[in-house]
Write a structure and sequence with these properties.
With 302 residues, the protein is an alpha+beta fold. It contains 6 helices and 18 strands. It folds into 2 domains: 125 residues, Helix Hairpins; 154 residues, Sandwich (Immunoglobulin-like). The strands form 6 sheets. Strands 5, 6, 7, 11 and 14 form a 5-stranded mixed β-sheet that branches. The longest helix has 30 residues.
């Protein structure tokens, strides 16, 4: 068996919506995609990695000075930290004037370290800027989706809100049903069904937006009973995208709903109110609240 065949697959956790999926893939070098790796690190891990690289670089150059006798003036030969801190001063192009290169070899190492420091500062600045400038959408999704009677039809309904209250123009939403299906050959596979929305686009999304899918004979949910839905290992996937005017960039958000996240025959609490002065108030403190109502519970579209 060859060495590549003997390698164990690399296990990685991938977050799809709110669902964690373990993937097995061929092993690659840890730095095969460093830019993507740095952008996906959490901020604590990013700064920890930055400090680790900083220490390792200075340990390398400090050891180089230490192994070259007379390379640093005023450095004690038996004090490694003198060379280590001289490396930090050189890398940062600070130079306090107490210690300086004392030989040609010392000047060569110092020149290489100064070049490394200049490139490192440029790369670090770019990475920090890329992480800060990455556009994000503060869109909140209702914790549950509901199935209810609405305007004479059975519908699937969920709502979203823009927590920033700025304008997301030309916003669009898609709703999909993801479930495992089989074919006559006995094979099982994941199939994604698009669920049509009564309104898929809105010119301006600033406050709230209720997404509604009509469960008619053209819907994949039509005729599905509550028990069939709970046992189908299905989930809903909703995606919202648009152009954020404040950041002048495209933003998007994704949310998934498992079978247990559906509430039957309920309705969202009305969060739009009018004050005695005639002002409209949106009460997001009750955004997730649902009131139960009586009505048919199964099948979905009957």
């Amino acid at each position: 068996m060859s060495g590549s065949q003997a390698q164990k697959p690399r296990v990685r956790t991938v977050l799809v919506g709110d669902t964690q999926v373990l993937t097995h893939q061929r092993r690659h070098g840890g730095l095969s995609d460093p830019y993507h790796l740095v952008l996906t690190l959490s901020w604590p891990r990013f700064f920890a990695a930055l400090v680790l690289v900083f220490v390792l670089v200075n340990l390398f150059f400090g050891s180089a000075y230490w192994l070259l006798p007379g390379s640093v003036i005023n450095a004690h030969e038996n004090q490694f930290f003198d060379y280590f801190f001289f490396s930090i001063e050189t890398l940062a192009t600070v130079g306090y004037g107490v210690m300086s290169p004392g030989s040609v070899a010392g000047h060569v190492v110092a020149s290489l370290e100064i070049l490394t420091g200049m490139v490192g500062i440029a790369i670090t600045t770019g990475l920090v800027f890329a992480r800060f400038s990455k556009p994000t959408a503060r869109i909140v999704f209702s914790r549950c989706a509901i199935i209810r009677d609405f305007d004479g039809a059975r519908v699937l309904m969920l709502r979203i809100a823009n927590e920033r209250h700025n304008r997301i123009v030309e916003a669009s939403a898609t709703l999909s049903l993801v479930r495992i299906e089989g074919n006559p050959q006995g094979e099982s596979f994941v199939r994604i069904h698009d669920l049509n929305l009564t309104r898929e686009r809105t010119p301006v999304f600033a406050l709230t937006w209720t997404l509604i899918h009509k469960i008619d004979e053209h819907s994949p949910l039509f005729g599905l009973t509550r028990d069939q839905w709970l046992g189908s290992r299905s989930r809903l996937l909703v995606s919202v995208a648009g152009h954020d005017e404040t950041m002048a960039a495209s933003v998007h958000a994704v949310q998934s709903y498992e079978a247990e996240d559906l509430v039957f025959d309920g309705r969202f609490v009305d969060i739009l109110k009018l004050t005695p002065d005639g002002d409209r108030v949106v009460d997001l403190t009750r955004f997730h609240d649902i009131e139960l109502m009586q009505g048919p519970s199964e099948p979905f579209g009957a």
